[in-house]
Design brief:
9 helices
């Protein structure tokens, strides 16, 4: 049986117009997407499943990719962004697909939000065909857990050996590990969240029991802000990319791991 409905922390973001307008320009999303697509380039054919796509999927091939996400609100919005795609509202721990239905599964920055992450890995392994690949990115190093993790409802960060053990426990064999983001990105996120929290103090809050009305994608000022925001994030990608290349893997803040189902 499927689990009871849980409160989804990201529903607040999915209904926020500024989030929708700016999310795809963020430096960390750009670098994760680049890393995953480089890893998959020229590898495999057939259907791809992306688990936990949110509003910013890693894969942008609507005719080939099935986007799976717990939030119906996110999928409804994503359908307007990627017409022609296939969208399924589903819990990562209860994927409603036949065994061996996909040649590749992508899961980027999702497991750390799930109470039962090992069950989700098992579900993704089950829907892979023999010889299929699972590509994941995940926050690395338990010692890096800080206020930015709490802000986005991370339940944990991972050490590489424990992630490899979880994959092997699900019948997958890790074959490749890549550094995606380094400590500079981690320091930047801590600073950004701290600044956002400081700026948020003193702002008027809704009355007791009031819920802010969802806002759709905003026009007007956001139309001018988005290109500038995108350009600045694009420039910042270079030092972050260099940082991830230079630091040892043991200090990486985000890792990519590719596993194969024997």
């Amino acid at each position: 049986a499927a689990p009871a409905q849980r409160t989804n922390r990201f529903e607040d973001f999915f209904a926020d117009g500024s989030y929708i307008a700016l999310k795809n320009h963020l430096y960390n999303y750009r670098l994760r997407r680049r890393a995953v697509n480089q890893c998959l380039r020229g590898r495999g054919e057939g259907r791809v499943l992306e688990v936990g796509s949110g509003l910013s999927p890693i894969m942008r091939a609507p005719g080939r990719v099935v986007y799976s996400e717990l939030s119906f609100q996110a999928l409804k919005t994503l359908r307007g962004i990627l017409p022609g795609g296939l969208f399924v509202a589903a819990d990562a721990g209860y994927l409603p697909f036949k065994p061996g239905a996909f040649g590749q599964v992508v899961c980027s920055e999702v497991l750390e939000h799930l109470p039962d992450d090992r069950r989700a890995i098992g579900e993704m392994a089950a829907v892979l065909r023999r010889g299929g690949e699972l590509v994941m990115t995940f926050p690395h190093r338990r010692g890096y857990f800080a206020l930015d993790d709490r802000f986005v409802s991370h339940l944990r960060r991972y050490e590489l050996p424990e992630m490899e053990a979880s994959l092997r426990g699900a019948g997958l064999e890790p074959v490749e590990v890549r550094k995606v983001l380094g400590p500079l990105e981690k320091a930047t996120m801590i600073l950004a969240v701290w600044a956002a929290q400081c700026l948020g103090r003193g702002k008027p809050q809704g009355g007791e029991g009031e819920t802010p009305a969802p806002s759709g994608p905003r026009r007007g000022p956001w139309k001018a802000v988005v290109p500038v925001f995108g350009a600045l994030n694009g420039l910042f990608c270079l030092p972050l990319w260099l940082d991830a290349r230079i630091v040892p893997r043991s200090l990486a803040a985000v890792l990519l791991i590719r596993s194969v189902k024997p």
